[in-house]
Write a structure and sequence with these properties.
25% strand, single chain, globular, 12 helices, 2 domains, 8-stranded mixed beta sheet, 400 residues, alpha+beta
Length: 400
């Protein structure tokens, strides 16, 4: 019998497993897919840097690409804005990383294994059942017993779908069509990785946006996110054909097959209970326009470990509200990013703030710190403006 079973070995699950194991907790991680495995969510935020240090992760040594910030473009109007994290409010970390998720996820999981977590691949979990003495995790290899279980299954959202507690978030992106381009030309790679300093590019398009993420090894990830229903693969081709920038950056480069991810943007309205909790995307997934998903999942995993370790020591892990302090803490981040996403789609914030010709320096610095994920501070005028607007404010744990 393990003390904790973590279902899912992605960055959030691996983070909580690493920190639990470091504290001496007997933790097993069950993962259905073999690693390394492909995933999107390749652009990280500066708010991760202290956690990487705590986990002992050498991101630069692993060869992940330095990310200086974000650039926004609207080819229809010619607008362009560049935001470097180093220009944020004092104390905001000055850079992040662009990562190939197969290698990055394996790197985080390796840290968990080094700390003593046991990882089992090829194990499918059908459900989690709690009782007074513990939890039973029903797997393809038979039942497992533990004192506590964490659903870190990402967008598979094991418990949310099983318990029919997933609710879509209206007016955010509904689906993405994406592919990678390899062997970029010398000129394009210099533009993205050297002059562009590895920044993510966001193209504003009708009913959505496009990500352009440079990756180590002269690769670029390109994806089209839309708010329209009924997305098909030809959305990518139509968007690419309408964008001189996309055509120029990817000209002559080999490309992978197109993929689609649907069911973007949802909340799980029942994300914790006695002896179990949902972590990261299994609890809430926001449109990824501001690259918040992986970062917030890992930061949630860190908080989960800090709450669960003392509870296991005192025998109080059956409390159904055990992880409420984590939700309360993370609510500020989800509220901020959700409100910013809503404003991005529904208001003139892109034209009036992102593409402002003569921006207020304090507002601009505050926007940059928000984009960096540095959202647990009380001196950000942009974040205050965003959260004080009843029209813009997003409630992450609303029932609807």
């Amino acid at each position: 019998m393990s003390e904790v079973v973590v279902v899912g070995a992605g960055p959030g699950g691996a983070t909580v497993a690493a920190l639990l194991a470091r504290a001496g907790v007997d933790v097993a991680v069950l993962e259905k897919d073999p690693f390394p495995r492909f995933h999107i969510g390749e652009s990280l935020l500066p708010c991760d840097l202290p956690l990487f240090e705590r986990l002992g992760m050498d991101m630069a040594g692993q060869g992940f690409l330095y990310k200086a910030g974000a650039e926004f473009f609207d080819e229809r109007s010619g607008d362009h804005a560049r935001f470097h994290f180093s220009e944020g409010l004092p104390g905001t970390p000055g850079h992040a990383y662009q990562v190939e998720r197969a290698r990055f996820d394996a790197h985080v999981l390796d840290q968990a294994v080094r700390e003593g977590a046991r990882v089992e691949f090829g194990v499918r979990v059908a459900g989690i059942e709690a009782d007074d003495a513990g939890v039973t995790v029903q797997t393809s290899q038979g039942p497992r017993r533990a004192r506590y279980a964490i659903d870190a299954t990402g967008q598979d959202a094991l418990l949310g779908h099983g318990g029919r507690s997933i609710r879509g978030i209206e007016d955010f992106g509904l689906a993405a069509v994406f592919r990678h381009f390899d062997d970029l030309s010398d000129a394009v790679w210099a533009e993205l990785a050297d002059e562009g300093q590895g920044s993510i590019r966001i193209l504003v398009v009708e009913d959505g946006w496009v990500w352009i993420i440079p990756l180590a090894g002269r690769r670029v990830s390109v994806g089209v996110v839309t708010r329209k229903k009924g997305v098909t693969l030809d959305l990518f081709d139509r968007t690419w054909a309408a964008s001189p920038m996309l055509q120029r950056l990817t000209h002559g480069s080999p490309r992978t097959e197109l993929r689609i991810i649907r069911n973007f943007s949802y909340r799980n309205v029942r994300s914790r209970g006695p002896r179990w909790s949902c972590l990261g995307d299994a609890a809430l997934f926001l449109d990824p326009v501001f690259s918040s998903g992986v970062s917030l999942a890992m930061l949630s995993g860190e908080r989960f470990a800090d709450v669960l370790v003392p509870a296991l020591r005192t025998g109080s892990e059956a409390d159904p509200e055990l992880t409420r302090p984590v939700s309360d803490h993370m609510a500020r981040a989800y509220t901020t990013f959700g409100s910013l996403i809503g404003a991005f789609y529904q208001t003139h914030i892109v034209q009036n703030v992102f593409f402002a010709k003569d921006p207020d320096p304090a507002i601009r610095a505050g926007l940059i710190s928000t984009l960096a994920g540095d959202v647990w501070r009380d001196d950000n005028p942009f974040q205050d403006m965003l959260l004080e607007s009843k029209r813009r404010r997003f409630e992450p744990y609303a029932e609807g």
